[in-house]
Amino acid sequence: MSIKAKVLIVEDEVPLRELLQTELSRSGYMVQTAANGREGVERYIEECFSVVLLDVKMPEMGGVEALERMREHSSIPEVIMFTGHGDIETAVRCIKLGAYDYLTKPVKLDELEIVIDKAHEKNRLRRENINLKLEIGKLEDHQVVGRSPEIQKVLATVNRWGATDEHVLISGESGTGKELVARAVHDASPRKDKPFVTVNCGRLDVHTAESELFGHMQGAFTSANKARAGLFELADNGTLFMDEVSEMSLDVQVKLLRVLETGTFRRLGGSRDISVDVRFVFASNKKLQECVEKGAFREDLFHRINLLPINLPPLRERKEDILPLILHFLKDSTYRGGEPWEITDQAVAALASHNWPGNVRELKNTIRRACILATEPVISTELFPFAPSRTLMSSKGNGGGDEEIGPLWMIEKDHIGKVLAAVEGNKSLAARILEIDRKTLYTKLERYGLET
Fold first, then answer.
1. Which one of 149, 181, 193, 212 is most buried, by most CB atoms within 10 A?
2. Backbone angles phi, psi at 265, to 5 degrees
3. Which of 3, 306, 359 minimizes the C-alpha distance to 161?
């Protein structure tokens, strides 16, 4: 079911104001009212609406002046002007000031609802555009890659937790891919088509945290020249991912707990509660229970957000994921001459034996660095910022091998054979599953002596 618009009605005539409030509420809209232009501007500044119905002729502050004041604070809500004394000059002025439409009284309710729905859709697209701008640079490839039992267990939990609407806590070391898992939770939820907003709590100091999360009113602090919606409002009806939640100050933790329990908050400097419908996904690279014991994290907040935990193991505990990750990072990269990358067996073994204190992020950067430094389309151990372990070199020198990983070509041959068997020899389907073109598949089949 589509979410109805949050509407502010600014109308000085009591009977019409009450009639519109009653009928629109009955149709499923979330409605608030203001009796005059000045009150309407105050409501507009304090809370985030998607559509405003603004009467043109009102005492004290008319609709045109109110529209000017509103647009000084925010251009996000769509404003529909309506009046019983319409004229072209006023209509043109309102449109130039950013009004969505200009209607003449009396307005039929069904026609008004059509205009409101269209304005609401435009408002929704505007908010999504803002969120996309916030997320630009983070929209690369959000696929969680891995074949280990540990990562498969994580993905199964993601699908189970994603279908609910409860908050999720992801724990894991830095670089393990907590944001990718958070996005997977969002994509597995009924909110997948709604905003996914991220915030790194570690980058918020005590002075900026409240403004970023809750928004602020004009004049709330020295540099607050304009009212601003916070991330909670931008994530309304969607998911808010709060990374490094352990770094949040205790004062902000108290206010976050209130939002979780009531679904409401106040902008910094505001006096009115704002309601939001947000699904929270939290992440921490610290053990929150230990933070609680040290007094750095509130115990009541910890129990509130730890309802559905997901533990993301470090890369050193899921070595089976290293090779798929290597191939994944090399897949979309080509050498300067356009050739695909090759990687030596020694390089795969070196990567597999490394401890990876920086986890998947370190592996990705290592592969990226190697691609930059390479003078030919081959990744070798000389391109890594670390030396192969003595144990690895010794085993190679003695004619031994890494039995767990094995040569890359043998792993690839075995993998292709299993995929072909699974699809009963359908090479087109096998190529799609392997994420290679059919020509490349036939080349590999011939090279490895597999049935063509």
1. 181
2. -160, 175
3. 306
**Residue 180 neighbours by CB under 8 Å, 6+ apart:** 142, 143, 144
Pairing of strands 239-243, 264-265: unpaired
Which has the closest alpha carbon to 379: 340, 432, 418?
Answer: 340
DSSP H or E stretch at residue 120: helix 109-135
DSSP 21-35: HHHHHHTT-EEEEES
Domains and CATH numbers, the chain: 6-132 (3.40.50.2300), 149-313 (3.40.50.300), 317-447 (1.10.8.60)
How far is residue 91's CA from residue 243's CA, in Å, rounded to a whole number?
47
CB 279, CB 165: distance < 8 Å: yes
Give the type of residue at 126: R
**CA distances for 309 relative to 112, 131, 239, 284, angstroms:** 46, 26, 16, 11
**Which residues of the chain carry a pLDDT beneath 70?**
1-3, 129-142, 206, 332, 337, 387-409, 451-452
What SS3 string covers 390-452?
Answer: HHHHHHHHCCCCCCCCCCHHHHHHHHHHHHHHHCCCCHHHHHHHHCCCHHHHHHHHHHCCCCC
DSSP 8-state assignment for residue 265: E
Residue 130 is predicted with a pLDDT of 65
Per-residue pLDDT tens digits for 286-296:
999 999 999 99
What phi-psi label fits residue 295: left (phi over 0), alpha (psi between -120 and 50 degrees) or beta?
A: left
Distances 160 to 84, 153, 328 between C-alpha atoms, Å: 55, 11, 26
Q: What are phi and psi of 346, to 5 degrees?
A: -65, -35
- The confidence score (pLDDT) of residue 343 equals 85
